[in-house]
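Lab notebook, bench 4. The sequencing result for the construct came back, and we need a structural model before the next group meeting so we can plan mutations. Quick request posted to the team channel:

Model the 3D structure of this chain.
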Amino acid sequence: MSALLLDTHIWLWYAEGDAAQLPPASVRRLEATRREEGLLVSAISVWELGMQVAQGRIQLPIPLRDWVDQALAPPGLRLLPLDAAAAVESTSLPGALHGDPADRFLIASARTEGAVLATRDQHILQYGKAGFVRVLEL
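Done. Here's the predicted structure in token form:
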């Protein structure tokens, strides 16, 4: 299997150990992939999470910068920087897709990295079912 790129909500639930959102089977899958192929977190997810914290939509137990440092610390988990290839790809994705810039960047990053995008976002899952990006529903 390819590396998994975590959608922002999957990363948050995984880092927080949120068993209500991420059942044990999903956590085991993520742990195995982290050890074998690696897990990717896009820098756009750091931005998206920060925006949600700033807007009061999400509360973290510690300051954002500290949370991000801890959430990216496990071996086998790698921050995927924003790059020109994914930026260009995000502006010309095939098929019909809503305009959420973070989702578009995540999809473009998965496509350019050859990664599978782990998500529960129904828009992204539908886009994956159409064959435009490889997805894993967790």
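Residues 49 and 55 are 10 Å apart (CA to CA).
Will bring this to the meeting.
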